[in-house]
Give the backbone structure.
Amino acid sequence: MQRVIATMTISLDGIGSGHNQTEERPFGDTSSELIHRWMFETPEENRAEIDEIVSAGAYVMGRNMFGPVRGEWDRDWRGWWGDDPPYHAPVFVLTHHPRASIPMAGGTTFHFVTDGIEAALDRARDAAEERAVHVAGGVSTINQYLAAGLVDELMLQISPTIVGTGLRLFEGVGPVDLELVSTRGASLVTHVRYRVRRTAGKEES
Amino acid sequence: MQRVIATMTISLDGIGSGHNQTEERPFGDTSSELIHRWMFETPEENRAEIDEIVSAGAYVMGRNMFGPVRGEWDRDWRGWWGDDPPYHAPVFVLTHHPRASIPMAGGTTFHFVTDGIEAALDRARDAAEERAVHVAGGVSTINQYLAAGLVDELMLQISPTIVGTGLRLFEGVGPVDLELVSTRGASLVTHVRYRVRRTAGKEES
């Protein structure tokens, strides 16, 4: 059974990113360091989780997670990750503005989907075949998929910080019933994994 | 070193209680069952944590955690917990309305403190002697103590549910730097424990 897994690092107060993203500040007003220290300072301690985050058969991500360009694609932006992004698989980017697909080194190809979150997920499901599809972020993209009842699992990394302001995971999503699958504490992060049992009246499949 | 520990059960989206508390609904619009299932359905699996929650030398709690009475104490409300509350120690209730202390069975005494959160904590510290002081809730009381830099540790129980609306722990608290002390996953709850390193510019002691 192919699973759709939403993955994200958040602060203890649920902030995944700051407001006012720019090219220089991919996470906006919130210092990425506050939230993502675990990934950069303790990669070996968290190798299994990092490997899994980039193990999907295909990815869906929002336009802001892909880059700072708004509106038309009036520049040749190819993501934040250099020539060889860590995904090594098709990545479907949600946008309102058509753009030709971009093959990158290492097997990552960015595809641009203009007909909504369900269409993007359908394409990712087809591309992933039996492997998992990851909804890789950002905050509003995961919230949209959760609210639509399209997420099977949440794989979260909770950083030991209270940020205070920013884009909050789960905001506006409404009630979701979860089942705890696993938790692991590391020195700079708590890994938690949940299965989605029911979203706003939608029964589990 | 005497520690001040804030203890609370929250949903994954940080909700500790609903709006519109009444005597019939201590947790307001949010069903307590959504958040507190772990405590009622799996007490043995969580015995160590439950025992610790009620192990303090003294407690501080907000008026709403103590009861539904607002304004003057115009009725003989003695808490939600019956004749023998689980605290077995002095409990300092924050209120703007004076009231004589109420000794209960089993060693719990409710004291009513009208001169603010620092005064209540001072009295609890004295009463607890070398033992820990617990800030037992509710949400706004813990948020006030956190914002004031008066909490040494957070002992949270995170329930596997997204509630959507209600009183949110950490709201308005501002940046707090934490250190993960421990985490444990049980079938209906994730226990996490943090040491507070710094609150809004206040250095750790």
Observations:
- The longest strand of chain A covers residues 176-185.
- The helical segments of chain A are 32-41, 47-53, 63-66, 117-128, 139-147.
